[in-house]
Amino acid sequence: MPVVYKGDHPNDAKVRSHGEQQARRCYEAAGAERIFRVPDFPTSHNVGTNRMSARPEDGVVNKWGQAHDIDNLFVSDGSQFTSSGAENPALTIVALALRQADHIAERMQRQEL
After folding, report:
1. Residue 35 gets which letter from DSSP?
2. Nearest CA among 9, 3, 2, 33 for reference residue 84
3. Which CA distances in Å does 38 have to 27, 65, 71, 82, 83?
4. Comparing C-alpha atoms, which of 24, 25, 44, 50 is closest to residue 36?
5. What pLDDT, on a 0 to 100 scale, did the predictor assign at position 54?
6. I need a surface site. Which of 19, 48, 76, 78 has the fewest CB within 10 A?
7. Where are the domains of the chain?
8. pLDDT per 10-residue tile (average), the chain, 113 residues
9. Dihedral sign, CA of 24, 28, 30, 35?
10. pLDDT on residue 51
11. Helix (H, G, I), strand (E, B) or coil at 23
12. 40: helix, coil or strand?
């Protein structure tokens, strides 16, 4: 049975803290009188279970969403993100899927897949 663990990468807390600081600066500049911090988890977008990485030991898929261990397996969703972004990952997912489709088509034309 597969076991899926989703925890913070050491950089996740740094990115989250930086984002919160920048958001606070924007809200204060806009005149906000009260600012509420959103809890870290659970997030509303499921990401990170098939992390994208250059090296197999750091993640599951490469920059094309192709599994490091299975040549003809491609992941085309938000699970390849290394961490949660601020919100609404749909356009990034679509952009990565289109880029991936072009890559797959090129490799198929060269009969590499």
Report:
1. -
2. 9
3. 14, 30, 40, 20, 16
4. 24
5. 95
6. 19
7. 7-41, 43-113
8. 71 84 94 84 66 91 94 90 71 92 96 91
9. positive
10. 87
11. helix
12. coil
Query: Are the C-beta atoms of residues 62 and 53 closer than 8 Å to each other?
Result: yes
Specify the DSSP class assigned to residue 31: T
Please state the φ and ψ torsions of residue 65, each to the nearest 5 degrees.
80, 10
End-to-end CA, the chain: 29
Give 38's contacts (C-beta < 8 A, 6+ positions apart): none
* pLDDT at residue 46 in the model: 67
Angle CA(81)–CA(87)–CA(89) in degrees, nearest 5?
Answer: 45
Spatial distance between the Cα atoms of 63 and 76, rounded to a whole number of angstroms? 11
Q: What is the pTM of this model?
A: 0.60
> Which residues 6+ apart lie within 8 Å of 11 measured at CB?
82, 83
